[in-house]
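Hello K.,

You asked for the raw outputs rather than the summary table, so here they are, unedited. I folded two proteins back to back in the same session to keep the settings identical. This is the first:
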Amino acid sequence: MTVRPGAYPWPNHKNAWRPNHIHFSYFGPAFATRLVTQMYFPGDPLLAFDPIFNAVPDQAARNRLIAAFDMDVTEADWALGYRFDVVLRGRDATPMGH
């Protein structure tokens, strides 16, 4: 469980803001096999303007970086629940830099 982060300004250009996102770090058998990725929240209007999110060229791949709201993991009167699905291999793998 975590607190959903807020947007924040960054000096990429005038009036640039990063959308709400969480960083995940997955370790393989060696440091060189580490995957660091950012996962985003649905409906964030800043996604359309974010050069990091939009650096992923394929729309379907970008959509896989957005969490799904999940009422089953929401805790009543306490916290909204989101499901972050990270796929490490195959056609639907989470995008990685090369």
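The second followed immediately with the same parameters:
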Amino acid sequence: MSSAGAVTGGGREGLTVLVTGATGFVGSRLVPVLARAGHRVRAMTRHPDAYDGSGEPVYGDVGDPDSLLEPLTDVDVAIYLVHSLGEADFERRDAEAARAFAIAAQEAGVRQLIYLGGLGEEQDGLSAHLRSRRQVEQLLASSGVPLTVLRAAIIVGAGGISWELTRQLVKHLPAMVVPRWASTRTQPIAIDDVVRYLAGVVGNEAAFGRTFELGGADRLTYTAMLQQAAEELHGRSLPILEVPVLTPRLSSYWIALVTDVDPVTARNLIDSMRNEVVQHDQDIRELVPGEPLGYRQAVRRALGE
């Protein structure tokens, strides 16, 4: 356990923080923010020799349990940003990885785990994707290391799979046919707000053992999201027709034709869109003050990137 910067109070400086998925959509933005906040950041990656971001690159692979103890040694806070959505057996892979990471974190004496999961009410019958996220939460918590969970819906930012799917659909199609999931409500959130919340709970004892819901300023149907994205991209709305017979499998093939999102990932994402994912509590704002961006603001920032 590193001696500097004990994990107490709200967001202490000088902690040693390990970020898994450091080269990913969220991790690549979070690492420099943590470094600027005064933390010693370890960026865990399977290819440390090729890493050119902030922090200290360290080797680690959640699919290889023997590789995890070394990067976690002397770490105060570990942030888990890993999932295997593009794999057909992602539920098994994610469970095995989370279980191995939890054991290694406990053995290394980590003081806090932080996990970015997904919104959704369990009584609604969660999709396989969201169900897997909840299982990962449970496995990480089973380590006994205090776990902080942040649950978000669609994260809007350049490079995010959900956003890229939206952007490419409205960019390439003059009109769109969508299934019934398009009328489901969601609460998209800007990547900048997600990073702000993640950084804000690092080392904050008031967040230990708690789950927080994240959301942007707007609650929208997926149809409204597509319309607003089209208006920001093209300056006009997009004709959208909702039909009842378009299955997740058919939708994923259609998406694969007009975007670079692979069919397996697309199908898993679309399957989750039948679940309403909106924020029901605002507790996170007590720990990390500030108003989140609205959807149009988030879209403009994503397009600007």
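The chain is about 40% helix and 15% strand.

Happy to rerun anything if the numbers look odd on your end.

Regards,
P.
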